[in-house]
Amino acid sequence: MRYDEFLERYKAAQREWRLGRVDAREALAGLRDVVPAIDDQRLQQTAGFLIDRWAAHTSPDARERMERVQRIAAEAERDEGDARERLTRLEDGIRDITAVALETDDEFEQYAVLAVNEPLARLADSWRAELGG
């Protein structure tokens, strides 16, 4: 099997997982089964790395962190209070989400967690503009 064929399978499996059509463990096991068939041993290692990264993102610890981050974001975006209170809540949420991201050494997971800050930062910017700051 050529590596690009593996990569197509990998992307398709991730897409199906994101859509909730397959269980991550099953998809990962299926991908691990085909790694030995990749015709280049160095690319087998690369494929294994991709699979391990995906597995790390779906670990119980990673899921717990992402669930916590979603709760923090929901609280930060709560539609309540004046502009100053909302801005403070958003800034607190951004700080707390950043702290959760730093709980892991996995850069990919950190990026996924920190991505949740982006809409909060945009909202915070709009509240700052409204407050004249």
Task: Give a quick set of tags describing it.
133 residues, 77% helix, single chain, mainly alpha, 0% strand
Task: Write up this protein.
- The protein has 133 residues and is an all-alpha fold.
- Helix content is 77%, strand content 0%.
- The protein contains 7 helices and no strands.
- Helix 4 packs antiparallel against helix 5 (83-101) and helix 5 (83-101) packs antiparallel against helix 6 (107-115).
- 18% of the residues are buried.
- The model has no long low-confidence stretch (mean pLDDT 94).
Uncertain stretches of 5 or more adjacent residues: none
Share of residues in helices: over 70%
Shape: elongated
| Termini gap | 58 Å
The percent range for strand residues is under 5%
Q: Summarize the biggest pleated sheet.
A: none
Short note summarizing the structure:
With about 130 residues, the protein is an all-alpha fold. Helix content is about 75%, strand content about 0%.
Write the layout of secondary structure elements.
Blueprint: H1 3-18, H2 24-34, H3 41-57, H4 60-76, H5 83-101, H6 107-115, H7 117-130
Helix pairs in contact: 1-2, 1-3, 2-3, 4-5, 5-6, 5-7
